[in-house]
Specification:
The chain is mainly alpha-helical. It folds into two domains: 64 residues, Arc Repressor Mutant, subunit A (Orthogonal Bundle); 125 residues. Helices cover 63% and strands 8% of the residues. The strands form two sheets. Strands 1-2 form a two-stranded antiparallel ribbon. A hairpin with a 2-residue loop joins strand 3 and strand 4. The two termini are 28 Å apart.
Length: 198
């Protein structure tokens, strides 16, 4: 969970894992002794994986994929994800910026026709995304919940709460997508910097 969140406090990890805070604290303290996690204080506060912990986590995930013989299925869904990823990034960019006289400027959402066209692109992508997340969820419980969370964000967007497309402080469509991307990379031992959009 720390790999997906990047930085998290005990209370958030407790909520996400379903473990009580005392149990989470014990696990974190044990992993800190093994130098797999570190606690950050200052402007950004919380627990994070160390480079050693990140490498160990990837090793354990790779062993699990091979033991359960699911690597090929996750690879296939990852390739579909990459195809959709370029499209989603395009949707988010078009939602946040608009071209005026050849210059990209912040979208003030006064061009209703433009915004409706962007939301139509999201609608078409959403159906394909749910097909991909359903496949992942059938393959491994590690991907459980992504279909539900994307549906929830999409429903709020359709209801007019369009901040649920890109806002980083809520479980927005883009936030869920970003986390799913990190989950795929962690499971497959890949790096964002090494991948190409399809």
């Amino acid at each position: 969970m720390l790999r997906l969140r990047g930085l998290a406090e005990t209370a958030e990890l407790s909520r996400l894992t379903g473990l009580d805070e005392a149990s989470v604290d014990r696990l974190l303290e044990s992993e800190a002794l093994n130098r797999n996690v570190t606690y950050h204080s200052g402007r950004l506060v919380g627990w994070a994986l160390s480079p050693k912990g990140r490498a160990e986590g990837e090793k354990l995930l790779a062993e699990e994929l091979d033991r359960e013989s699911i690597r090929d299925r996750i690879e296939a869904d990852y390739l579909e994800f990459l195809e959709l990823n370029g499209e989603l990034l395009g949707v988010c960019s078009a939602w946040q910026t608009i071209t005026v006289d050849g210059v990209d400027v912040v979208n003030d959402h006064s061009d209703t026709e433009h915004d409706l066209a962007v939301l139509e692109r999201l609608e078409a992508l959403h159906r394909r995304a749910l097909h991909m997340t359903a496949s992942l969820e059938r393959t491994s419980s590690r991907f459980g919940g992504y279909s539900r969370r994307l549906r929830a964000a999409h429903a709020r967007i359709v209801a007019g709460e369009t901040e649920w497309l890109t806002r980083s402080t809520v479980d927005s469509y883009h936030s869920v997508w970003f986390e799913l991307h990190e989950n795929l990379l962690a499971n497959l031992g890949r790096r964002r910097s090494n991948e190409r959009q399809r």
